[in-house]
Request: fold
Amino acid sequence: MDTESTTLPQDTAFDLLSNGRRRLLLQRLQGTDGVELGELATELAAIENDVPPEELSAQQRKRTYVSLYQTHVPKLENAGVVTFDSESGIVGPTDRVDELVKYFNTETSDVAWDRLYLVVGVVGLLVYVSASLLGNQIVRPLYVGIAVLVGVVVVSLFHRRYENGSESTEASISQ
Reply:
């Protein structure tokens, strides 16, 4: 299977991500050249049992190792998401790991767009009310209203460009 020229179908991606242990495995593999299966099992078992690795029981570690070895790694390998070298025990990521990780990436936007819209609206409202109370002495309320609308449109355009720029840097998974 050529993992570089094709993307995973969305149903396959969601099936692979339907298990929490596989999601943890993918997160752990992201940005690495590979991790030894025993080390991976220890790390995941510690996370799942909410204990430090040194406090894991042999049973907890073994249960995780067996499920990774028999179920999760083969399923991900068959989909072309990971590679597994049975001699060295190394589980390695393919380019598809990043493709899947974006589905559950919890990073939020560094721009608080809702607050920005609120500030433009509140400032515009205050200036509009002030202009209305002062009459036509300083600036006409109509001009303030137009300026507020232009401000909202400008912020909306920047918001759209920002969001589209974020999306274009990620590979999309085909339907």
User: Anything to note?
Assistant: The chain has two domains: 10-104, 113-167. The beta strands are 35-36, 82-85, 90-93. The longest helix spans residues 141-168.
